[in-house]
Amino acid sequence: MRPYLPVRFAVAPMIDWTDRHCRYLHRQLAPRALLYTEMVVADAILHGDRDRLLGFDAAEHPLALQIGGSDPAKLAEAARIGEAFGYDEINLNVGCPSDRVQSGAFGACLMRDPDLVGRCLAAMREAVAIPVTVKCRIGVDEQDPEPALDVLADRAVEAGVSAIWVHARKAWLQGLSPKENREIPPLDYERVYRLKQRLPEMFVGLNGGLATTEAAASHLNRVDGVMMGRGAYQTPSELARVGELCHGEPPVPVDYPALIDAMAAYAERHMAAGGRLSNVTRHMIGLFTGLPGARRWRQILSERAVRPGATPELLRDAFAEVQLDPANAAAA
Fold first, then answer.
1. Quick one: CATH architecture of 9-247?
2. What fold characterizes domain 256-329?
3. DSSP strand E in 191-262: where?
4. pLDDT, tens digit, for every residue of 166-182?
5. Secretion signal: which residues (predicted)?
């Protein structure tokens, strides 16, 4: 098995959000971040349109494929397919609490069956040469997070995983929506710290409630890696600080004109292949949050990118409305 990537910072897998267009944007801002796909169900990989589900741009590396499922044989075959597509890591979802995963008895439901998780991970591990990892919660429903997380982590270690990523909240499978499950159960970072102390040789990463890169980086003295979700998506400019805060690199202002040019060129390629401009621009809405002109930027992209005949030049038109802060004035 290949050694695990030297991960310090990752962007979390988020259904309907972290598609290939989103990831291309994030890669422009954070060259060293580990990016994750949306969760893709194993059955979809086995029977669906694989190019649509799994295709990505080479610029997205390092890139992990997150798979959902609970059948070891199917997960193993899906992992093999993902490896053949060129992914750098295969991750098993043991944390999503949506109705979709509950009806299929996978995602966060698997926290109740750590032995099955172990069998799934072992089958995936035996099927591929790239790292296999798991992303879980600290527990579900009435579980005590102390034994629940330890038992699941032990099964993962026994299966030969390269990393355990932990969303530091419980999931409540009944009574809370997926959105509420991201906000209402209290965060327990200390529980993840204790897991790392207990498993000093295992990569343990922390996820949950990390709204800024600075907040994420503050945990790196207690765990091996940190993972941002909605904070990275809603305010993509936060990703520009990953090199400085997570890797100790000198701060580098974002060259926003170059970024807009890169995204316009990417959108042009996407549209030439039959896609729509809005597939790309919808992920860029929050790019200039907090700057003068950001509202106009959002308005132009939201209203005009969906119109027939919209072209990538719209990005430059919208960017002309933005007033960069002094740190980026030179780049403009």
1. Alpha-Beta Barrel (3.20)
2. Four Helix Bundle (Hemerythrin (Met), subunit A) (1.20.120)
3. 203-207, 225-228
4. 999 998 888 778 778 77
5. none
Residue with tokens 């959000």: 17
CA–CA distance, 47 with 29 (Å, rounded to integer): 34
Annotated catalytic residue within 22, 96, 120, 246: 96
In CATH terms, are 9-247 and 256-329 the same topology? no
- What residue numbers does the annotated binding site for FMN cover? 66, 135, 167, 207-209, 229-230
Residue type, 9: F
Tens digit of each residue's pLDDT (9 = 90 or more) over 226-279:
999 999 999 999 999 999 999 999 999 999 999 999 999 999 999 999 999 999
**b/e map 262-279, b = 16+ CB within 10 Å:** bbbebbeebbeeeeebbb
Q: Is the peptide bond before 186 cis (omega within 30 degrees of 0)?
A: no
Going by the annotation, the residues of the binding site are 66, 135, 167, 207-209, 229-230
Domain positions in the chain are 9-247, 256-329
3-state secondary structure 265-300: HHHHHHHHCCCCHHHHHHHHCCCCCCCCCHHHHHHH
Q: Which two tokens stand for residue 306?
A: 């969906």
User: What is the enclosing helix (H) or strand (E) of 140?
Assistant: strand 132-140
The token pair that represents 135 in the structure block: 């992303």
Q: Is 109 among the residues known to form the active site?
A: no
pLDDT at residue 332, rounded to an integer: 40
What is the Cβ-side half-sphere exposure of residue 30, based on CA atoms within 13 angstroms? 30
